[in-house]
Amino acid sequence: MRTPSLSTLLIAFNVGMVVVAIVFVGTAGTSLLRRLADEQAVARVRLAGVGAVQAIERSGDRLLASAELLAERPTLARLLDECDEEGLGAYLETFRRTSQLSGYAVFVSGRLFANSKPALPWNEIVNAAHAVEGWHLLQPADTTSLLMGAWASVPTLPEATVLAVRVLDEAYAQETAEKVGLPVAITTRWDLEEHGGLAEALLFQALDGEAAPTGRIDQLKRYLSAVPLRDPGGAVVGVVEAALPTAAVDSSLRTLIGTLVLLTLGIGALATLLSLMVARRIARPIELLTAASARIGHGDLSSPVPRATGPEIGTLATTMEEMRDRILGLTTELRRKQAEAEAVLTGIVEGVFAVDRERRIRYLNPQAAALLGIRAEEAIGRFCGDVLKPQGPGGIRPCEESCPILYARFRGSARATARLLLREGEPRSIMITSAAAGSEGEDEGVAQAHQFQVIRDETEVEATRRLRDTVLANISHEFRTPLSAQLASLELLRDQLPDLKLEEVRELVLSIERGTLSLTRLIDNLLESTRIEAGRGSLRRREIALDQVVEEAVELMAPLIEQRRQTLQVDLPYPLPQVIGDATRLVQVFVNLLANANKFAPPDTTISLGGQVDDTEIRLWVEDEGPGLPSGAVDSLFQRFTRSPGEEPEASGMGLGLFIVKSIVDRHGGRVAAESSGTGTRMCVILPRSDESSARGGHENPGR
């Protein structure tokens, strides 16, 4: 088992002491926080329960005031004098809706004379009401909610009594809950028979005792307060239950505990940092001497041994420095000679490696190591075929039948093209030139002479050839399609011109025109791409009207848009500000954008050309109703020879249109953007207004 270092022991001891202290303090603090949180939650539900009872009592006072107010109404007295039961019932209903109470009734000589909706046990309510002064509470046998009633005598008709009722149902409990800020429920003794659960004993205790029981019920995950609900006579008729979910308190407590944990971690990190500083100050001199010894052991003789304080460590440092000076003098001459040879091999561009008679690699220069993607140390001593991994026809390694190293031993030199499979799985094409082997050593202990090979990477050359072939194939395909259509139209005109109607001739001429437009656009794009690549893409700058640029592009593309039965809607701000630029190049920009929209949008759809102008920029866009851009396609959309991943082969192009659009707009000091929401694509061109364009592009060629 490895013995820990001095600095490690010091850090571990200090950090351990801090962690133990933090754990004890954190445990006690968490317990205290939990107790305080429970106490605050219990006090909150207790206050909510008491507040709900007080709200019910205030509702009783308002109910009594409402009954007295109704009894004093002249309209009520008049309807009673006229014995108009139906009119009185309608008046009571209207008053009920205005006062937002549950109902009103009028009794004459103890008999129900009229009442509002809904139907209530009025006789039972009035009998209980006359038993007490003011308002009262009761629960009739055929209802599930408490009823609050209040009565008042009619001043002009003493035998008539007005009864006002408020039902303490769930809606009333919800209103009370909004006032006190916690959920509230009003429960009666009869409800408790079916209440069940762990809260039943707490509610019965509130019905039977004077105190207001409050506590946390973990099984129900809530804090519960049960306050007796008494009528004005002092009788307990129900319980007001206020509840607070424990999740709210626990969430706040978890947040506080999380903050405490983060603070603990911060203190621990600070203690670790301080311990590290102290330990490094104590152990640093020994570590520096140890590192110096390791450097000398690995051949690094240029770095001096650091000085150290103290008699013992100082003497050791001085002795090590003298030893380094002697070794450095012996190795300097050897390194000089080695550097001369290395300079020759590392100064050339090609990769160079040497093999022995068994074709094991004995030397590999940095260029060859970089080409093969390995470190030189990894290749030394290995068979060259295992390092280069040449791939012959059918995946068979040509190390035995067509190895240029073996051919060079008999022919003096050999050259071959090989295909290598690198470590990352990437194939590379190289040209390898092998020299003949040198003379063997005379001494049996001397290794056999090395045979040198020069390798040159031709992967990019081969890729350029493939790209050239692909571009030529695309150009041939792009030119062949409109030319074939034109040839067919011309042949039809030649053979059937006397028999064709004027409309048929017009269609054939339009077909030839569309083919000519396609060829013209392709040739313009190819020429512009060539100019851009050659660095000759200069602009003829002058003040131009964008309206005319857009109008010319629309006229050029009109036949192709009409061919697919598409509708072009142009909605531009009027007038568009003038810009400084090349009108011909900008026409090419909008022709390419309209051509893309024409190609990707389905037939019978709409292509929109719109714009927006602000103080510094002019934004113009072409929007289609096509399939939109695939995910991740926007980044590579404006690169050369890049086509849409979802593009059909018959609709494919050379991938130059958007590349040219971006190049022209960039040279005008603007920018392009592509936007897609899944269906449809909007290609935006943002150009600076003429005052800013002159400042940005003044270095461009003003004209030929």
End-to-end Cα distance, whole Å, is 82 Å
CATH topology term of the largest domain: Beta-Lactamase
Percentage of β-strand residues:
15-25%
Shape: flat
Q: Give the fraction of residues assigned to helices.
A: 40-55%
Biggest sheet descriptor: 5 strands, antiparallel
Number of strands: 21
In CATH terms, the superfamily of the largest domain is LuxQ periplasmic domain, N-terminal subdomain
Domains counted in the coordinates: how many? 3
User: What count of helical segments does DSSP give?
Assistant: 19
Please compute the radius of gyration using only Cα atoms.
48 Å
CATH architectural arrangement of the largest domain? 2-Layer Sandwich
Q: CATH first level of the largest domain: which class?
A: Alpha Beta
What does this structure look like?
The protein folds into three domains: 1-270, 2-Layer Sandwich (Beta-Lactamase); 347-457, Beta-Lactamase (2-Layer Sandwich); 540-696, Histidine kinase-like ATPase, C-terminal domain (Heat Shock Protein 90). α1 packs antiparallel against α8, α15 (502-534) packs across α16 and α16 packs parallel to α17. The radius of gyration is 48 Å and the shape is flat. The chain has 19 helices and 21 strands. It has 704 residues and is an alpha+beta fold. The model is unreliable at 193-198, 440-447, 645-652 and 692-704 (pLDDT under 50). The strands form five sheets. Strands 2-1-5-4-3 form a five-stranded antiparallel sheet, sandwiched between helices. The chain has helices at 6-71, 74-81, 85-99, 122-130, 170-180, 189-195, 200-208, 246-297, 311-346, 366-372, 376-379, 384-388, 404-411, 459-496, 502-534, 546-563, 583-600, 657-667, 690-696; strands at 103-108, 111-115, 135-138, 146-154, 157-168, 184-187, 214-217, 222-230, 236-245, 351-355, 361-364, 413-421, 427-435, 451-457, 542-545, 567-571, 578-581, 606-613, 617-623, 671-676, 681-688.
